[in-house]
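We emphasize that the prediction below concerns an isolated chain of 195 residues; any contacts that depend on oligomerization or on bound cofactors are therefore not represented. The input was used exactly as deposited, without trimming of termini.
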Amino acid sequence: MITEVRIKLMEDHNENERLQAFCSVTFDNAFVVRDLKIIEGTKGSFVAMPSRKLTDRCMQCGCKNHLRARFCNQCGNKLDEDRAIRDADGRAKLHADIAHPINSACREVIQGAVIKAYQEEKERSKQPGYVSNYDDFEADYENTYSQVIGELNAANRGNGSEFRAHGAHGPRGRHANAPETSRADSGNGFGAGIL
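Result of the prediction step, given as a token string:
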């Protein structure tokens, strides 16, 4: 059962852009699927499930490359441009859903709830002082994560194993309290050169 839908409207929506909004759907107050997209289609808005780009490996060096890449990102080898699997209509399959309904009844329930929430959010956005609640998820996640770590540590107290919470991220993925380092002084160990 869907218990919450959060919508993030695209601010710069114009006639050339089909992406209308991002959304997240919560099921039974227990499971969240994020990054669904609301897209303007020829027959009206529809919901696209979260997906990832498909990759394959270079025959020369083994490096992963997106299926649209013409040259290998690692060695520069020319890649076969027609290497993507094609569907029955001949279109290249370039993305794979991460999460999706497995029957049409479930898809209709999700799409109906999301499109309804999208219409309501568009109306809310016309009000003075409008703020999207979509971005609240990061704070919700951090609070839930810290709570789970605390519960795990309480259950394991006395047996010598303790979990620690993951620190908040600062600019460019650095942990907020981590010292600034350069690539030159980061050494050759794990994560060397990653900033």
